[in-house]
Structure formats: structure tokens, C-alpha cells
Amino acid sequence: MMRYPIGIQSFEKLRTNGYVYVDKTALVYRMTRDMSCYFLSRPRRFGKSLLVSTLEAYFLGRKELFKGLAIEQLETEWVKYPVLHLDLNTGKYDKEADLDDFLNDSLAQWEQVYGSSPTEVNAELRFKGVIRRASEQTGKQVVVLVDEYDKPLLNSIGNETLHDAFRNTLKAFFSVFKSTDDYIISGSIRN
User: Fold this and answer.
1) In this predicted model, what pLDDT tens digit does every residue of 153-166 receive, in sequence order?
2) How many other CB atoms are there within 10 angstroms of residue 111's CB atom?
């Protein structure tokens, strides 16, 4: 009996529990060969989160999850990269502190792995520091995956003050990508 992955967002769960998977890994491989910053926008319930989960498994070098898929034959190195996965779907975002609390929690988890500095006094400086240290400690460029980036903004439509606060916070947080370009994977990932 075929098991369809209704509502499953985890590539690992899908692959280890025998769900049907339409193999798009050849496209994932091709996309990562000509890597730069990608912005994926598709309708709701169209598989964006599953794609992000698939990319995370790939960049973490989880070869066992790709057994029998096209990418297994294409990829020869299975390099493990440091991955920072930010899934903004988990917050309620009905007050300004919600986004700050979410970012703080994510940063604290990454800082447990890659360390912190007392001079990093705000979310932007902490994010910049985590990216730099992750790259320096692993000797690899960092992969940053952001899912549901717009949830705080969508949840604050109709509340101009809150919407502006969230927009300003996200703008400052994501501006870190520009100053950490040397540490973030871009261009071709061929070694």
C-alpha cells in the first residue's frame, strides 16, 4: 500500500518512513551547482518547507537519506556544510517581542555550537558572529536556509506599528548576509 506524505515537511521523516516521494533531487543537485542566493515563492501547501528540509539534508551530507534517488548517482563527494536553518513558522507574532524572542532562541542554539562573543550585543551582530565562527570552525562556507520568512509580516497586516517593527527587525537581521558574503556559500559548490 502506498503511503502519501500529506502534511509532512521533513525529508528525513518522509524517506525513513516509506512515504511516496516524487524524485526532484536531480533538480536540487543542478540548483546547488550554480548556487547563489535563491528566493523561492510558490503557493501555500506547495512543498517549499519540504524542499528546504531536502536542501538541509543534502548540505549536511546525509547520503543515506538519498539512497535510490537521482542525486545518489550525481553527487560524488557528500560534503558536510554548516547549516543554519531558520524556520519562522513557529511564532505567533502578535506582539513585537515575539520576533525578537524567536531570533534570540535560534541564535542561542547556534551559539551553543559555534560560540559567542560578549561584544555581539544585538541579533544582527550575533548572527554575523555565528556565521563567521561556523565557517572558520568547519573550514566550509555556511548554508543559511530560511523558511516562512514572511510569517511575522503576514501576521501583522492591519497593525501598521507592529508590521513596521517586524519589517525593520527582519531588514536589519537579513542585512547581515551582505557583510558575511565571504562566509556564506555562493557560486558553485564544486570543490
Assistant:
1) 999 999 999 999 99
2) 16
